Predict the structure.
Amino acid sequence: NAGVMQNPRHLVRRRGQEARLRCSPMKGHSHVYWYRQLPEEGLKFMVYLQKENIIDESGMPKERFSAEFPKEGPSILRIQQVVRGDSAAYFCASSPPSNKGREQYFGPGTRLTVT
Amino acid sequence: TQLLEQSPQFLSIQEGENLTVYCNSSSVFSSLQWYRQEPGEGPVLLVTVVTGGEVKKLKRLTFQFGDARKDSSLHITAAQPGDTGLYLCAGAHGSSNTGKLIFGQGTTLQVKP
Protein backbone atom coordinates (compact mmCIF):
# COMPACT_ATOMS: atom_id res chain seq x y z
CA ASN A 1 0.00 0.00 0.00
CA ALA A 2 1.88 3.03 -1.26
CA GLY A 3 2.14 6.08 0.93
CA VAL A 4 1.67 9.68 -0.08
CA MET A 5 3.72 10.44 -3.16
CA GLN A 6 5.10 13.77 -4.14
CA ASN A 7 7.03 14.82 -7.20
CA PRO A 8 9.39 16.17 -8.01
CA ARG A 9 11.46 15.69 -4.86
CA HIS A 10 13.68 18.60 -5.80
CA LEU A 11 12.79 21.53 -8.04
CA VAL A 12 14.97 24.44 -9.07
CA ARG A 13 13.38 27.50 -10.64
CA ARG A 14 14.66 30.92 -11.60
CA ARG A 15 12.90 33.99 -10.29
CA GLY A 16 9.77 34.68 -12.31
CA GLN A 17 9.20 31.09 -13.44
CA GLU A 18 6.32 28.87 -12.42
CA ALA A 19 6.57 25.91 -10.05
CA ARG A 20 4.15 22.99 -10.11
CA LEU A 21 4.21 20.53 -7.24
CA ARG A 22 2.26 17.28 -7.42
CA CYS A 23 0.81 15.10 -4.70
CA SER A 24 -0.89 11.73 -4.93
CA PRO A 25 -2.65 10.82 -1.67
CA MET A 26 -2.66 7.39 -0.10
CA LYS A 27 -5.12 4.94 -1.58
CA GLY A 28 -8.57 5.52 -0.14
CA HIS A 29 -7.75 9.01 1.10
CA SER A 30 -9.89 11.81 -0.27
CA HIS A 31 -8.54 14.71 1.80
CA VAL A 32 -5.32 16.50 0.90
CA TYR A 33 -3.41 19.14 2.82
CA TRP A 34 -0.43 21.26 1.83
CA TYR A 35 2.13 22.62 4.29
CA ARG A 36 5.24 24.70 3.85
CA GLN A 37 8.41 24.39 5.92
CA LEU A 38 10.73 27.35 5.67
CA PRO A 39 14.36 27.04 6.79
CA GLU A 40 14.58 27.25 10.58
CA GLU A 41 10.79 27.38 10.89
CA GLY A 42 8.08 24.88 11.63
CA LEU A 43 5.47 23.47 9.30
CA LYS A 44 2.79 25.98 8.33
CA PHE A 45 -0.61 25.00 6.98
CA MET A 46 -1.43 26.32 3.54
CA VAL A 47 -4.57 24.69 2.16
CA TYR A 48 -7.00 21.81 2.65
CA LEU A 49 -8.75 20.25 -0.32
CA GLN A 50 -11.20 17.51 -1.09
CA LYS A 51 -11.90 16.25 -4.58
CA GLU A 52 -12.79 19.29 -6.71
CA ASN A 53 -13.24 21.49 -3.63
CA ILE A 54 -11.07 23.87 -1.63
CA ILE A 55 -12.21 23.55 1.98
CA ASP A 56 -9.79 25.88 3.78
CA GLU A 57 -7.19 28.09 2.09
CA SER A 58 -6.56 30.36 5.06
CA GLY A 59 -2.81 29.66 4.98
CA MET A 60 -2.31 30.39 1.29
CA PRO A 61 -0.62 33.64 0.26
CA LYS A 62 -3.16 35.83 -1.50
CA GLU A 63 -1.17 36.15 -4.70
CA ARG A 64 0.73 33.78 -6.96
CA PHE A 65 -0.28 30.60 -5.10
CA SER A 66 -3.10 28.27 -6.09
CA ALA A 67 -4.05 24.67 -5.42
CA GLU A 68 -6.39 22.15 -6.94
CA PHE A 69 -7.43 18.56 -6.44
CA PRO A 70 -9.26 17.44 -9.58
CA LYS A 71 -11.65 14.53 -9.85
CA GLU A 72 -8.94 12.54 -11.60
CA GLY A 73 -5.22 12.84 -11.00
CA PRO A 74 -2.99 14.29 -8.32
CA SER A 75 -3.38 17.45 -6.31
CA ILE A 76 -1.34 20.35 -7.70
CA LEU A 77 0.18 23.27 -5.81
CA ARG A 78 1.07 25.98 -8.29
CA ILE A 79 3.32 28.94 -7.60
CA GLN A 80 3.49 31.59 -10.29
CA GLN A 81 6.35 34.07 -10.74
CA VAL A 82 8.43 32.51 -7.99
CA VAL A 83 10.62 34.67 -5.77
CA ARG A 84 13.56 33.68 -3.58
CA GLY A 85 11.35 33.76 -0.49
CA ASP A 86 9.36 30.86 -1.92
CA SER A 87 12.37 28.56 -1.42
CA ALA A 88 11.20 25.97 1.09
CA ALA A 89 10.13 22.38 1.54
CA TYR A 90 6.51 21.82 0.56
CA PHE A 91 4.76 18.85 2.11
CA CYS A 92 1.53 17.21 1.15
CA ALA A 93 -0.48 15.12 3.59
CA SER A 94 -3.61 13.05 3.19
CA SER A 95 -6.26 11.57 5.42
CA PRO A 96 -9.23 9.28 4.93
CA PRO A 97 -12.72 10.78 5.06
CA SER A 98 -13.50 9.02 8.32
CA ASN A 99 -11.02 10.52 10.80
CA LYS A 100 -11.83 14.20 10.28
CA GLY A 101 -8.25 15.16 9.57
CA ARG A 102 -6.93 14.15 12.95
CA GLU A 103 -4.29 11.87 11.54
CA GLN A 104 -2.52 13.15 8.51
CA TYR A 105 0.04 11.12 6.61
CA PHE A 106 2.80 13.05 4.99
CA GLY A 107 4.69 12.63 1.76
CA PRO A 108 8.46 13.06 1.44
CA GLY A 109 8.14 16.67 0.33
CA THR A 110 9.30 18.78 -2.60
CA ARG A 111 12.31 20.99 -1.97
CA LEU A 112 11.92 24.13 -4.04
CA THR A 113 14.96 26.29 -4.65
CA VAL A 114 14.54 29.63 -6.37
CA THR A 115 17.71 31.05 -7.87
CA THR B 1 -3.01 33.33 17.04
CA GLN B 2 -2.95 29.67 17.93
CA LEU B 3 0.50 28.56 19.00
CA LEU B 4 2.12 25.36 20.12
CA GLU B 5 5.38 25.86 21.95
CA GLN B 6 7.80 22.99 22.23
CA SER B 7 10.62 22.72 24.70
CA PRO B 8 13.44 22.18 24.65
CA GLN B 9 14.31 23.15 21.09
CA PHE B 10 17.53 21.14 21.13
CA LEU B 11 18.55 18.19 23.25
CA SER B 12 21.79 16.25 23.15
CA ILE B 13 22.09 13.26 25.47
CA GLN B 14 24.01 10.03 25.92
CA GLU B 15 22.61 6.66 24.98
CA GLY B 16 20.65 5.16 27.85
CA GLU B 17 19.43 8.45 29.33
CA ASN B 18 15.77 9.40 29.70
CA LEU B 19 14.25 12.58 28.34
CA THR B 20 10.96 14.47 28.15
CA VAL B 21 9.79 16.86 25.45
CA TYR B 22 6.97 19.28 26.16
CA CYS B 23 4.32 20.80 23.94
CA ASN B 24 2.28 23.67 25.42
CA SER B 25 -0.48 25.98 24.30
CA SER B 26 -3.07 28.36 25.70
CA SER B 27 -5.60 26.87 23.29
CA VAL B 28 -7.64 23.70 23.66
CA PHE B 29 -7.13 21.06 20.99
CA SER B 30 -9.55 18.33 19.99
CA SER B 31 -6.60 16.06 19.27
CA LEU B 32 -2.85 16.20 19.26
CA GLN B 33 -0.38 14.28 17.16
CA TRP B 34 3.32 13.61 17.57
CA TYR B 35 5.50 13.19 14.50
CA ARG B 36 9.13 12.39 13.91
CA GLN B 37 10.98 13.83 10.94
CA GLU B 38 14.31 12.74 9.50
CA PRO B 39 16.45 15.14 7.42
CA GLY B 40 15.19 15.34 3.86
CA GLU B 41 12.00 13.40 4.60
CA GLY B 42 8.42 14.13 5.60
CA PRO B 43 7.05 13.84 9.14
CA VAL B 44 6.06 10.33 10.19
CA LEU B 45 3.09 9.99 12.51
CA LEU B 46 3.93 8.40 15.86
CA VAL B 47 0.71 8.75 17.85
CA THR B 48 -2.59 10.61 18.20
CA VAL B 49 -4.07 11.51 21.58
CA VAL B 50 -7.66 12.63 21.84
CA THR B 51 -8.92 12.41 25.42
CA GLY B 52 -7.74 14.69 28.23
CA GLY B 53 -5.36 12.77 30.51
CA GLU B 54 -4.82 10.06 27.91
CA VAL B 55 -1.54 8.14 28.02
CA LYS B 56 -0.25 6.08 25.11
CA LYS B 57 2.87 3.97 24.92
CA LEU B 58 4.88 3.04 21.87
CA LYS B 59 7.76 0.79 23.01
CA ARG B 60 10.09 3.14 24.90
CA LEU B 61 8.03 6.25 24.07
CA THR B 62 5.24 7.46 26.36
CA PHE B 63 2.86 10.18 25.23
CA GLN B 64 0.49 12.07 27.50
CA PHE B 65 -2.28 14.54 26.73
CA GLY B 66 -2.95 17.11 29.43
CA ASP B 67 -6.23 16.98 31.34
CA ALA B 68 -7.34 20.28 29.81
CA ARG B 69 -6.16 19.23 26.33
CA LYS B 70 -3.84 22.22 26.10
CA ASP B 71 -0.53 20.44 26.49
CA SER B 72 1.23 17.18 25.86
CA SER B 73 4.49 15.46 26.65
CA LEU B 74 6.68 12.82 25.06
CA HIS B 75 8.92 10.79 27.33
CA ILE B 76 11.63 8.51 25.98
CA THR B 77 13.14 5.89 28.25
CA ALA B 78 16.69 4.64 27.70
CA ALA B 79 17.24 6.66 24.55
CA GLN B 80 19.12 5.04 21.68
CA PRO B 81 21.02 6.58 18.75
CA GLY B 82 18.18 5.49 16.48
CA ASP B 83 15.89 7.91 18.34
CA THR B 84 17.85 10.85 16.90
CA GLY B 85 15.62 13.14 14.88
CA LEU B 86 13.22 16.07 14.90
CA TYR B 87 10.11 15.56 17.02
CA LEU B 88 7.05 17.64 16.20
CA CYS B 89 3.77 18.04 17.99
CA ALA B 90 0.71 19.17 16.06
CA GLY B 91 -2.76 20.04 17.25
CA ALA B 92 -6.16 19.99 15.59
CA HIS B 93 -8.91 22.33 16.72
CA GLY B 94 -12.50 22.01 17.66
CA SER B 95 -15.51 20.48 16.10
CA SER B 96 -15.34 22.09 12.68
CA ASN B 97 -13.37 20.00 10.28
CA THR B 98 -11.04 22.57 8.78
CA GLY B 99 -8.31 19.95 8.63
CA LYS B 100 -5.68 22.44 9.72
CA LEU B 101 -2.91 21.18 11.99
CA ILE B 102 -0.98 23.68 14.08
CA PHE B 103 2.63 22.56 14.45
CA GLY B 104 5.14 23.28 17.15
CA GLN B 105 8.63 24.42 16.19
CA GLY B 106 10.05 21.00 16.91
CA THR B 107 12.61 19.47 19.24
CA THR B 108 15.86 18.29 17.69
CA LEU B 109 17.10 15.27 19.61
CA GLN B 110 20.62 13.89 19.31
CA VAL B 111 21.45 10.67 21.10
CA LYS B 112 25.17 9.95 21.27
CA PRO B 113 26.39 6.36 21.44
About this structure: Chain B touches chain A at residues 30-31, 33, 35, 40-45, 48, 50, 88, 90, 92, 97-106 (CB under 8 Å). Chain B has a mean pLDDT of 92. The longest strand of chain B covers residues 85-92.
